[in-house]
Design brief:
alpha+beta, 6-stranded antiparallel β-sheet, 5-stranded antiparallel β-sheet, 4 helices, 29% helix, 44% strand
């Protein structure tokens, strides 16, 4: 074998080894970096896991992910403690999320949102949610209770679609009671802040928890400060 051929073979072998190593190590490094930054920003977070994929792997340096999955438990966002949060993207920066809120945090979830109800309280009942609170429609404070499902509209407004609405401890006329029912049906009980890089596509109750799913701009969500 001639010397030039040997050099060529050795060079190709080295390139192959380096390429193979980069395909393995770059995703590991990218995952480690994202996980580290999440832990720095949310030190209370537990069980943080990050998985990234791209081919070829060097595309990760320009954030051209073919797959990105982030999962964490115990993260606190906007004053709400989430049981778990999962972000996924196959077309970065567009992604989806699902988040779970436990029964202990559900009251907090609605009170922080600026709900039309004063002192809101929520209780999961099988696949439905019962929300109680105080409502002022000009008749004084009314103790209102509604049981039903939560339905998102336009990505940011969440409405309680009730099977029933009751007004407790008052002697309202039938017309006034109907006005309360109409108000509950026509006004969002929760609104996503306009500056948050997410929208809600579904919100369900089950097993004593709220399960929220939606779309998220992952690039904006992962802006580490």
């Amino acid at each position: 074998m001639s010397k030039p051929l040997k050099i060529l073979i050795i060079t190709l072998a080295v390139i192959l080894v380096l390429y193979t190593a980069s395909e393995l190590l770059i995703p590991i490094g990218a995952s480690w970096y994202i996980k580290r930054e999440i832990k720095k920003r949310y030190p209370e977070a537990a069980d943080v896991s990050v998985s990234v994929r791209a081919f070829p792997a060097f595309r990760l340096f320009s954030k051209k992910y073919s797959g990105l999955t982030i999962e964490a438990r115990g993260i606190k966002l906007e004053g709400i403690n989430f049981d778990s949060i999962r972000l996924f993207s196959s077309t970065y920066p567009n992604g989806t999320f699902d988040a779970v809120i436990g029964q202990d945090e559900i009251d907090n979830f609605f009170s922080i949102s600026g709900s039309y109800l004063g002192n809101p309280r929520a209780e999961i009942q099988d696949s439905q949610i019962k929300i109680t609170g105080q409502l002022d429609l000009g008749y004084g404070l009314l103790n209102v209770s509604g049981t039903g499902i939560l339905v998102p509209q336009k990505g940011r407004d969440v409405f309680l679609v009730p099977d029933n609405v009751t007004v407790e401890g008052t002697s309202l006329s039938g017309q006034m009671t109907a006005e309360v029912r109409q108000y509950v049906s026509e006004n969002p009980i929760f609104t996503v802040r306009a500056d948050l890089p997410l929208t809600i596509t579904a919100i369900k109750a089950g097993n004593g928890k709220l399960i929220i799913t939606g779309d998220v701009d992952i690039e904006e969500a992962l802006k580490f400060k």
